[in-house]
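Model: Ready when you are.
Researcher: Fold this.
Model:
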Amino acid sequence: MSGLLLSAAEASGDLLGGELASAIKAQAPTLRLRGLAGPAMRAAGVEAIGETEELGVMGVAEVLSELPKLRAARRSLVEALAEKPQALVVIDAPDFNIPLARKARAAGIPVVFYGSPQVWAWRAGRARELAALGQVLCLLPFEPELYRAHGGRADFVGHPARDRFEPSTPGSDWALLPGSRRAEIQRLLPPMLEAARLLREAVPGAHIRLPLAPGLDRGLLESCAGAVGLEGVEVVSTVAEAAAPAAACLVASGTVTLELACLGRPMVVVYRVHPLTWTLGKLLVRGVEHVALPNVLLGKEAVPEFLQHWESQALCEAWREAAVGEQAAALARVRTLLGEPGAAQRAAEQVLAGLTR
């Protein structure tokens, strides 16, 4: 086939892919885009051969339960590779996408990785393989050197969070952001809601907002809420609706922490995975002291992190303290480190330039 094949296997990758697809279409309106796509990519003009909403898992134990869906999605992409697209663009989800990239490379199809796997945290050997497989468009400023050390082509294009949010004055409300993956929400939302209940007791009249990620439904939130329930929590559609009026955010670790930094919202970051995934991670991760991306960028704990085990009371207290704390300067520094706005446009230019090489 003429055109590009794109693969995004989770919600965060779909958002990245949607922005990239829109930028590609703006520069090359007639170029055909097909792939594994979620709502953002489909809205941007990507013809879906599989839907990202069916996937969206991470971690060793979590992936095992979704293997049939993952295999079906990969089969669809392998069949599309047989039609000889001009290039393959893979977005996030390295365990899913790297085997696909190998097949593309073997077939002589150029490969572009939009967003680097966290080779700086674990499985550093992947940097050598990715450098050999294709071009890497990095979203964090320190990542290109990891690939250039292996002779690969890697470029820092900036982070799209700079385009999604501009700094604004915090409000007086509160935000809960439990993530975009189903398993993530099931694991994090109950203790986060307990912290919200404690917050309402300590701050009578506190207004708390919670965004519902694309592809999920309110029933998931209600089933996770259990006895605590969603009382006093307003469910909204977007991160911006939840975070813009907030004084501070209680947030799952992930890209959204960079979005909050760009918005200038103080935050407390939580992270919890399946016990097996946590145990393996402790064995594999070396030389990384922080989980929250703002802290990784700054090399220090500028925003509080609660990892794997915590008490809801401590979570609530940290959340309240963040609203009156001193995160503003650190968040402004993170915003600067993410580069200038226009990341998707720069990435699209790189992808299209590769078609003529």
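Researcher: Now this one.
Model:
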Amino acid sequence: MTSTRIENLAAAYAAAKRGLEKIKDQEKLQSKETARIESDLFDALEDEGLSGVTIPDLGKFRLNDLAWAKIENREQAMEWAEQQRPELLTLNHQQLSVIVRAAIKGEGEIPPGVTFTASRKIGWTKA
């Protein structure tokens, strides 16, 4: 048999956990909606040929279009580095990411054995 105190604490704990789960579910939904709107804003700025915009009372919104190199075939990437960019023989991910970003803009090619993960975000400086 449990005491009233334990039952009350268990009920309070269960209620708190349910409340937290509800908040987390709402956060997931809000995150998805925010990501969708962010993508729409990113596309709209790109469509208008803008890299950013300042909205009175809201702040500055600017494009932040980045990509990070991801080595999928280390052997191929090392072979390419030996021939094309020997300074990368350590396969520095920062330097590879610079090469990938340039390739995405049409300045060169993505090295063999390397893919990338893209991030399309809006940077916002609040007013």
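Researcher: Key takeaway?
Model: Strands lie at 52-55, 59-71, 114-126.
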